[in-house]
Amino acid sequence: MASINEKNIKHGDKKKFQIVLVDYDRSAKGLEDYVKGSEMSWPAIKLDQKDSVSQLTSLGETGFIPNIVLLNASGEMVSNKRDEVLKKLAELAES
């Protein structure tokens, strides 16, 4: 995911997508530890931002964490199938 995001960032102002982490950690420290230990270079919505989290988690529920969901610009779900989403992001990052 990090390498796909890096390719996307190279598009500058014409980025093709935005990756956002929706935090499921039970504490702020949990999120902080995760971000420090990962190659994550995208924003996170913290669990205490309950309205945003509940709206996003209601979309494309797959029953597992980590879940990956692709939304269009209108916020409608395009896919919640991991392989399909990663393939589409890779295609967008290359275009």
Salient structural properties:
mainly alpha; 95 residues; 41% helix; 4 strands
Neighbour order of strands in the largest sheet: 1-2
What's the order of the H and E elements?
HEHEHEEH
Residue share in helix? 40-55%
Structural class of the helices, strands and pairings? Answer: mainly alpha
Strand content: 5-15%
| Radius of gyration based on Cα positions | 14 Å
Please describe what this structure looks like:
Helices cover 41% and strands 9% of the residues. It has helices at 2-9, 28-37, 50-57, 82-94; strands spanning 21-22, 44-45, 70-71, 77-79. The chain has one domain. It is built from four helices and four strands; from the N terminus they run αβαβαββα. By secondary structure, it is mainly α. The strands form two sheets. It has a two-stranded parallel ribbon. A two-stranded antiparallel ribbon has the order 3-4.
Give a quick precis of the structure.
This protein is 41% helix and 9% strand. It is mostly helical.
Outline the fold blueprint:
Layout: H1 2-9, E1 21-22, H2 28-37, E2 44-45, H3 50-57, E3 70-71, E4 77-79, H4 82-94
Parallel strand pairs: 1-2
Antiparallel strand pairs: 3-4
Helix pairs in contact: 1-4
